[in-house]
Amino acid sequence: MATLVVIGLGYSATRIVQEVAGRFERIVVTVRDPARAAALTGDQVVATPFDGTAASDRLAAALRDAVALLISAPPRADGADPLLACHSKDLDAASRLAWVGYLSTVGVYGDAGGGWVDETTPCRPVSPRSAARLGVEGAWAEFGAARGVPVVMMRLSGIYGPGQNALEQVRSGTAKRIVKPGQVFNRIHVDDIAGAVAASLARPNVTGPLNVTDDEPAPPQDVTAFAADLLGVPPPPEQDWEAAWPTLSPMARSFWGESKRVRNARLRQDLGYQLRYPTYREGLRALLAHGYLP
């Protein structure tokens, strides 16, 4: 039975499962909450509790049958990957495994001062979260090299899509239009993350780091203004970066402390993937047209 195992069923992984379901006879996903696991289990999808602190017998059995493995869960507090930490022996016994995908972040590059980065750029992560991601990337690369299994580390930009986008922020009144000169970043629609994973499953020879990002890095305030224009409302007032700093969460401060433009040539050329939403404009227009707003 062709089995896909998905570690961590969050926002992106949920959309990925929908995209690739037709390729597998069975999909085993992990969630932290046992009650959610019971609610999600159906004819094709089997959900099992796994919090990354102890091995799971059901997950161990699924790994031994897996032909593909997607890791969407973040590193543990100690920096280790939860699956490698708890199920290394079961992974060694996964003789049918032919593809491993790890969802990472472009945060591993750190701050480029608004310059361009690609997969050959040395990684200098700034935040502890990104540093942990980079460490786990290395651990999975070592696993793939030792086992002869293709491993792709998908470095994702700022994720948006249904229920998580600038249109909803503007409409709800929670959008901020902070202006920091020179600040730019890329984005990626969740549908394009799912599409890239499907393309990678079809071309497992494309391994190693892979930037999964759109074509146009842009200042955050431009995206907010565009969303407001689509909705036909005035954009939020501009806020100076320094004035807004005291109101920002630690995670937001980390985000605003990095600026870079991420190239996606390898995604387009090596993987042969054509973005459904090349920029935030196409993505936001589609979200509005398809009624993905409350």
Question: Under CATH, the topology of the largest domain is which?
Answer: Rossmann fold
Output the CATH class name of the largest domain: Alpha Beta
- Per CATH, the architecture of the largest domain is 3-Layer(aba) Sandwich
CATH superfamily of the largest domain: NAD(P)-binding Rossmann-like Domain
Number of domains: 2
- Assembly type: single chain
Basic shape? globular
Structural class: alpha/beta
Task: Describe the strand arrangement of the main beta sheet, using strand numbers.
Answer: 3-2-1-4-5-7-11
What gyration radius follows from the Cα positions, in whole Å?
A: 19 Å
Number of strand elements: 13
Mean pLDDT: 95
Organism: Blastochloris tepida
Pfam families: Epimerase (PF01370)
Protein name: NAD(P)-dependent oxidoreductase
Keywords: NAD
Walk me through this protein's architecture.
Helices cover 39% and strands 19% of the residues. The N and C termini lie far apart (40 Å). The chain contains twelve helices and 13 strands. Helix 1 packs across helix 7. Helix 1 links the parallel strand 1 and strand 2. The protein has two domains: 3-158 and 188-212, NAD(P)-binding Rossmann-like Domain (Rossmann fold, 3-Layer(aba) Sandwich); 161-186 and 216-261 and 278-289. The model has no long low-confidence stretch (mean pLDDT 95). The strands form four sheets. Strands 3-2-1-4-5-7-11 form a seven-stranded parallel β-sheet, sandwiched between helices. Strands 6-13 form a two-stranded parallel ribbon. Strands 8-10 form a two-stranded parallel sheet. It is of the alpha/beta class and 294 residues long.
